[in-house]
Write the structure tokens for this entry.
Amino acid sequence: MTVDQEPLRQALARISAPTLSLWGTADRVIPHALIDDLVAAHPDWAFEPIDGIGHFLPWEAPDQIRDQTAAPRSRRDPVRAQNRA
């Protein structure tokens, strides 16, 4: 089962606030291609993949979620740093 991407894309396009997007690399609901599109469409968002975690991030990786949301933005933006290099 995967998410219906078009309504999700429309909803995400309306977000104007600074955003930290966390995604589990083992997620079977949100496909990696959608994440790649979001990163490209929202260069001001911070994106953090969580290796080996599925769709239920808060239950599967609560410590990592806590650490990512508590970290200063400059420490939690590896995708942007890679894209600038």
About this structure: Confidence is low (pLDDT under 50) at residues 80-85. The helical segments are 5-13, 32-41, 57-60, 62-70, 78-84.
